[in-house]
Amino acid sequence: MIYFEIPDQICFKIRTMKNIFTSLICLFALSLNAQTDVNIHFNHLLGGDDFQLESVFTAQGDYDANITRLEYYISQIELIHDGGQVTPVEDTWLLVDASETNSVYLGNFDVQQLEGMNISIGVEESVNHLDPGAYPADHPLAPQIPPMHWGWAAGYRFVCLEGLTSTNQSLIYQIHALGDDNYFTQEMTADLSAVDGVLDIGLEGEYLNMFINVDVSGGEVVHGDYGVAIKLLQNMTSEVFSVKEPVITTSAKQVYEEELVSFFPNPATETIYLQLENIEAKDMVVSIQDISGKMLIQRTAFDGTQEVSIASLPVGAYIIQVVADGRLVDADKLIINK
User: Fold this and answer.
1) Distance in angstroms (rounded) separating the CA atoms of residues 335 and 2
2) What is the mean pLDDT of residues 235-258?
3) Residue 162 and residue 71: Cα distance in Å, rounded?
4) Model pTM greater than 0.85?
5) Which domain does 146 fall in, by range?
6) Which of 136, 92, 139, 138 is nearest to 117 (CA)?
7) Residue 34 to residues 2, 251, 302: CA-CA distances in angstroms?
8) Domain check: are 61 and 206 in the same one?
9) Which site among 1, 143, 261, 299 is 20 to 30 Å from 332 CA-CA?
10) Which residues of 270-299 are buried (b: 16+ CB within 10 A; e: fewer)?
11) What is d(CA 169, CA 178) in angstroms, rounded to the nearest whole number?
């Protein structure tokens, strides 16, 4: 057997290179496991314009109508990312009100590059026939006003679309679409990157497309799982939604370069303090919302630091959203621990 004596200097260099290599592997592993806060920002449109209740539009078939109510459930969200990986957003149901829901926090995931997203409209069969009264009052599946549940046998209303039509909008139309057989899924492509640990997803809904082959000109009223209710749900998962760059934002944040509102502590228990940082905005609304986008607390007037009680809110994740001069300019996550 032949032995070689290796000089200490060479041994030091070998150990040094090994340490560097080990560090690089660790850094690479950390980068693979980097966690990202994922948000959905809704862009509600009607004929290319911002969606507004009671705004008159011309539907397919050349008749005028408006929308006085549009609410729907989104469930079984899946994120397709980083080379085709599929990450489900588990135990999440979004109750979307097209006139109110702006941004929703989905959670923290190992996602860096979003390549696609799947959503289903409605509530999956395994949950659809459970008791709504079993959920906390602020849960999207709890009893709602106006109702979003049809009964034990039928389950939840997947979409509630109501409005006025005919000459001078003199006729009422209503489509409350439901049914396990009408629970459809949409696959959408995307090309969005996480920035500084946050992935903002723009989900654009063009609601004029709900009316493709859905004629309500005669004052159609369908509450169930048949006729135009089926076609409406098909349109909702093929013609309405697409993933875009989020509408928030870059342009809005260029107007207000500094953070408008800060808050502390976070996590919080009973009270948080909102502090005005920039008074350039003429009209500012700060709201606390649950993860479904339901507004729970709202403040419109500030004088320095404002104390806000959150004692009534249960433990969980919330969103503090800042709207300045009619535009969403900031959204931050608030954690409540008791």
Assistant:
1) 65
2) 70
3) 9
4) no
5) 36-244
6) 92
7) 48, 27, 37
8) yes
9) 143
10) eebebebeeeebeebbbbbbbbbbbbebee
11) 26
How far is the C-alpha of 139 from the C-alpha of 98, rounded, in Å?
18
Please identify, among 244, 274, 291, the residue that sits at the C-terminal boundary of a domain.
244
Decide which of 244, 268, 298 is a domain's last residue: 244
Range among 130-139, 165-174, 204-213 with highest mean pLDDT value: 204-213
Q: Answer yes or no: is 21 within a domain.
A: no
- Read off the pLDDT of residues 116-167 as tens digits, 9 standing for 90 and up: 999 999 999 999 999 999 988 888 999 998 999 999 899 999 999 999 998 8
Identify the helix (H) or strand (E) that includes residue 203. strand 198-206
Residues 230, 220: Cα–Cα separation, whole Å: 14
**Nearest-10 Cα torsion for 327, 332, 333, 334:** -100
For residue 252, give both structure tokens: 């809005």
Closest CA to 252 of 17, 21, 41, 56: 41
Evaluate if residue 258 carries a pLDDT over 60: no
- The mean-pLDDT minimum among 25-29, 154-158, 170-174 falls in 25-29
Q: How far is residue 200's CA from residue 188's CA, in Å, rounded to a whole number?
A: 15
- Look up residue 329 and give its amino acid: V
Burial class (CB in 10 A: 0-12, 13-18, 19+), 334: buried
Strand, coil or helix: 128: helix
Question: What would the two tokens of residue 112 be?
Answer: 């860096």
Residues 299 and 192 occupy one common structural domain: no
Mean pLDDT across 79-88: 97
| Residues present in the chain in total | 338
User: How confident is the model at residue 2, as a pLDDT?
Assistant: 42
The Cα–Cα gap between 208 and 63 comes to: 12
